[in-house]
Specification:
By secondary structure, the protein is mainly α. It contains 1 helix and 2 strands.
Amino acid sequence: MGFKMLSLPKLLLLAVVVGGVWLGFRLLDRRQHGGAKPKRAPKSKPLDMVSCATCGAWVARACARPDCPVE
């Protein structure tokens, strides 16, 4: 039993087999997660924040405090 070198056809077959296994796992994972790629969160516009003179908190709109000066 001597050691034989890998020939080009054997290397190509090995690459096809490894690629097929990788593709199979990828498809199986996609199938288990609903078949869709993970979606990015939609981009939202930044809010204009103002500092409340009463409590010092940064708010986008008036808070629930009755004496809040932010309208």
